[in-house]
Amino acid sequence: MDSTRKSAMIRSGSGVTFALLWWATWGWAAEVPVGRPEEVGLSSDRLARLTQGFQQEIDARRLPGVVMMISRRGRLVYTQSLGQMSVGEPMRVDAIFRQYSMTKPWTSVAAMQLMEEARLQLTDPVSKYLPALKAMQVSTAEGEASPGKPNYILKPAVREMTVQDLLRHTAGLVYGELTANGPVRDGYADAGFFARDGGSYDMRGMTPAQQIERLGGVPLARQPGSTFEYGIATDILGRVVEAVSGLRLGDFLAERLFRPLDMKDSAFMVPARDLAWVAQPFDQGPATGTPNRLIDVSIEPGNDSGGAGGVSTAMDYLRFGLMLLNGGTLDGARVLSRTSVELMTADHLGTGMQVPVTPGELLFGVQGYSFGLGFAVRQHTGIGQVAGSPGEFMWAGFGGTFFFVDPREQLVAIYMSQAPGKSRQYYRRMFKQLVMQAIVD
């Protein structure tokens, strides 16, 4: 392990308390104010339930390890690393995690930055930037080809998908791993968008140009603008960002998001010198015994997957969450305007959209959440079976990561693990409930 890469400490003195994470490789430091839970209306005793609860799961070998951080009212008041980072290596607070779908909020912010510069609009057709996606067909089920088997026919798209459709998952683009639409699933597999042998959510083996060319030959699963269905839309949004900016997505994010926010370990691959800090899953799922297959972050991808390819640390993602909570700014660096953050975290599905599986069901297995521009958004205090506030927003990743921002409570909470599998929803609910029950003011 390269001890020169980075070290982490919490330091206090002269009445000033702060968290200091220093990366020798980068040569500069990021400071996050810290405090005691009781100073911001949280209970230390109740936060101990969070530590105890996840330690029990680790001791039972249902989780390999976790890193958790909670900030309230601008102060980091809880940081915990438990379990192991890899076999024989204790979990470090600065471990690097595959983010999978928690890459999507970064790509969504990138698109909003371009919107703020009038370089694109949410109403723009995607074909304005990616011409191969102009005349799309839609695979539509009509009747049965045989008993119990839908008959699919192709129909022209009633309208083109827009940038807003990409941001809110209403473009008709889905995941081959999840869709029941046979022609779309087969088309995605043939195009290399997913592996029939079980490799999950990895489209990085092709160039951006190949990705768009191949996608243009595969039908949509829904009419654009008609249905919320989670899928590869944010990957395609990343191609829009590249077309508009002239930069590779990773380079754009490094310049416009990661460097301004001091997100030092956020990228689309991990250099060889840092691979020892990458958190690893169990070889097999504890409940199923099936092999855990996560993306290889040691190699440069053919394309930067804006929907599933990012890597990051808990501290990096905390800083991203704090920027959003603060209305687009952190430590003097403005990434977005307050009005753009408000637009992103509002409900963009409304009442007329078909929503076969709601964002809350995808995330937690609960009702009560709609979708904005890159995030699930809570609509009511009730309905959802986990505590929360109207207006809170969040998302999670296939590899076991999760975050939420609660503006009413001035709270950002980060959960990092590498534990793919169906238990992800359970641990998201567990983490969120244990964070919220620690609020005592």
Quick description:
The chain is α+β, with helices and mostly antiparallel strands and 441 residues long. It has helices spanning 44-59, 104-116, 163-168, 182-191, 208-215, 233-245, 249-258, 314-325, 338-344, 359-363, 424-436, and strands spanning 6-13, 16-23, 28-33, 65-72, 75-86, 89-90, 97-98, 137-146, 149-156, 311-312, 329-330, 333-334, 369-371, 376-378, 393-396, 402-406, 411-416.
Give a structural overview.
The longest helix has 16 residues, at 44-59. The relative contact order is 0.16. The chain folds into two domains: 10-102 and 251-436, DD-peptidase/beta-lactamase superfamily (Beta-lactamase); 109-245, no CATH class. It starts with 5 loop residues before the first strand and ends in a 5-residue tail after the last helix. Helix 1 runs antiparallel to helix 11 and helix 2 (104-116) packs across helix 7. It has 441 residues and is an alpha+beta fold. 26% of the residues lie in helices and 21% in strands. The protein has eleven helices and 17 strands. The strands form five sheets. An eight-stranded antiparallel beta sheet has the order 6-5-4-17-16-15-14-13, with helices on both faces. The protein has helices spanning 44-59, 104-116, 163-168, 182-191, 208-215, 233-245, 249-258, 314-325, 338-344, 359-363, 424-436, and strands spanning 6-13, 16-23, 28-33, 65-72, 75-86, 89-90, 97-98, 137-146, 149-156, 311-312, 329-330, 333-334, 369-371, 376-378, 393-396, 402-406, 411-416. Mean pLDDT is 91; it is low at 6-29.
